[in-house]
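Issue 218. Parser rejects a valid record. Input:
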Amino acid sequence: VQLVESGGGLVQPGGSLRLSCVASGFTFSRFHMSWHRQAPGKERELVAGITNGGGSTNYGDSVKGRFTISRDNTKNTVYLQMSSLKPEDTAVYYCNARLFSSYWGQGTQVTVSL
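Output the parser choked on:
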């Protein structure tokens, strides 16, 4: 099982980034997917989640209206489109796959700064 995140980097406040998470080693289309983040000194928090078929999504209060989660089951990939980024969005972003088991990626750093 492998989850590989990419797309992180340094961006100015107000900017945008799109994160990707490519999955392998399991039946991607059966798993609910989510993005989480962890800032230094803080607990890991849910950013956004999407059901296995993509029909339902949910978001953390701090990102509602700014971030969009989506998935392409033909590419075994889940995305996180982030817009209107703020310095407080700075964190390591992790991809998670969940059904009866839970799998995590290694994370990708997002830094929002001038």
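Fixed in the parser; the record now loads. The CA atoms of residues 39 and 91 lie 4 Å apart.
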